[in-house]
Amino acid sequence: MAMSLQEREHSSFVIQPATAEEAAKLLQSLEGEAAIVAGGTLLRTHWEAGTAAIPRYMIDLGGLPGITGITNSDSGLMIGAMTPLSVCRASSLIQNAFPLLTEACRSIAAPSIRNLATLGGNIVSAIGDAIPALLVYEAVLCWHDGMQEQRELLADWLRQPRKGRILLRVELPFSYTEEMNSNMKRFTAFHKIGRREAFTPSVVTAAVDGWLDTSTGCWGKFALRLAGAKRQRPGWKRSNSCCRGTRLEQHCFPKCTPKFCMNLSR
Ligand SMILES: Cc1cc2nc3c(=O)[nH]c(=O)nc-3n(C[C@H](O)[C@H](O)[C@H](O)COP(=O)(O)OP(=O)(O)OC[C@H]3O[C@@H](n4cnc5c(N)ncnc54)[C@H](O)[C@@H]3O)c2cc1C
After folding, report:
1. Where is the FAD-binding PCMH-type domain (predicted)?
2. 8 A C-beta contact, residue 150 and residue 174
3. Over the stretch 201-239, which tens digit does the pLDDT of each residue have?
4. How much is the pLDDT for 187?
5. Ligand 1 pocket check for 43: Cβ under 6 Å
6. Which residues contact 106 (CB under 8 A, 6 or more apart)?
């Protein structure tokens, strides 16, 4: 008689490394037989659908120091890869400086899933709805490859993902909002297109952040990032350069909207 999913999961071995170095080396040496299991919410959908095999070894990162939680530094906010989406959603540190990420976490699945699902798992899946929000904020990913820590822009990783590494944390630089002053009025928008009653990746998810100088009526910053299951769009690079300094009513939307729509429909 065929084994149930639970029986097959129970026949796997769970390994709990104590350091990121150990975790990355295990992942590399057990290639093809081991997987990092964070919240397991996305992996489980693959196992249930039969689109991925249950690995013989499940690597649990929960014991790694500093991999869970949100901390403030002088330069930015650091979010551990194992931080649950529910914690990100409730964080006032994130809400105050990076509101699109709060909105993205709010939009993902139901509360019971968000209690398990991690920000790291959402990113490494490469189809997660947190990605466009993080791209807007020029997020930096911090990895361990078994030898050393490595930092790279999320946008660069999406262009060229590398396997066999452990995502330790995401860094959101405060420099992103440095140009804002009391004359600036901030606008943010987050929108998903896709059916999610049962999980299927969104067709497209859009995140927009910008601020308008109320004394001149010109955009100080305007960033739009799109992502979707069919194709990653790690940036609509010209969104900021074509809007910055243009007046809202005169030039901005005639220039921006057709490009935005073209990107969506392509
Ligand atoms: C009912 C339901 C609804 C959902 N709705 C949404 C939705 O609306 N939007 C959305 O984006 N997602 C959705 N999901 C998918 C999933 O819940 C999220 O993407 C979640 O954030 C994945 O995180 P996780 O911790 O569960 O990842 P896991 O399933 O544990 O892992 C996902 C992948 O990331 C890898 N990984 C995880 N952490 C690390 C790390 N630190 N270093 C290296 N690799 C790592 C794993 O090996 C695996 O390949 C839904 C899932 C379900 C079941």
Report:
1. 7-177
2. no
3. 788 888 999 888 888 888 888 888 888 765 544 444 455
4. 85
5. yes
6. 89
- Does ligand 1 have an atom closer than 6 angstroms to the CB of 205? no
Determine which helix (DSSP H) or strand (DSSP E) holds 135, and give its type and residue range. helix 130-136
ipTM: 0.99
Three-state DSSP state, 189: strand
Q: Which residues fall within 8 angstroms of residue 179, CB to CB, at 6 or more apart?
A: 220, 221
Neighbours of 134 (CB within 10 A): 27
- Best residue among 25, 31, 36, 112 to mutate for probing ligand 1's pocket (most ligand atoms within 8 Å of CB) is 36
Residue 183 DSSP SS3: coil
Token reading at 254: 């005639």
Q: How confident is the model at residue 94 (pLDDT cuts 50, 70, 90)?
A: very high
pLDDT in tens, 66-92: 999 999 998 899 999 999 999 999 999
**Which domains are present in the chain?**
10-59 (3.30.43), 70-177 (3.30.465.10), 184-265 (3.30.390.50)
175 Cα to the center of ligand 1, angstroms: 28
- Which residues touch 140 (CB under 8 Å, ≥6 apart)? 151, 152, 153, 154, 170, 171, 172, 173
Which alpha helices (DSSP H) does 180-249 contain, by range?
238-243
